[in-house]
Amino acid sequence: xxxxxxxxxxxxxxxxxxxxxFLAPVLVAMFLGSIxxxxxxxxxxxxxxxxxxxxxxxxxEKAVATADISNVFSAxxxxxxxxxxxxxxxxxxxxxxxxxxxxxxxxxxxxxTTARATNGVVTLPSGVMVSGGSVILTEVTxxxxxxxxxxxxxxxxxxxxxYARPRRSTTxxxxxxxx
Length: 179
Description:
- This protein is 38% helix and 22% strand.
- By secondary structure, the chain is an alpha+beta fold.
- The chain starts with a helix and ends in a 15-residue tail after the last strand.
- Helix 2 runs antiparallel to helix 3.
- It contains three helices and five strands.
- The longest helix is centred in the first third of the chain and has 45 residues.
- The mean pLDDT is 89.
């Protein structure tokens, strides 16, 4: 019996298989985690691009119509591909100077959420609003849920805001109604 124990103690034939069994779950978790991190960063980049694109498209106009706002919403919905657009919230608002460096909502339109109230005050970062001017504020909220981790965690809301100054006029005339 003692010789058998000595022989088993010195045997190394199954050592690699045992080490692999210990390391395989860690390696798989690291692999899936790197895929998840890359996908989440790509989605966050798209959300930031959505906000800047929507603000930029509106800032190029002197006046926007309901069809223009609808086209902007369609364009930013196309940008988020291949991620689903379900639950994505977009708010586009024109803010005019209220005399104290903050903005007063001149008009606002939204997709899948409520628009900002007209004449509501929005606190802006310093330097964004010039005296007597206006800015376009676009706010995007995207409910990101991972294909890999959807069974372990809940949805994460990725948000982005973007400010753009009108290019062709001091203020942009809003649509008569929102889509």
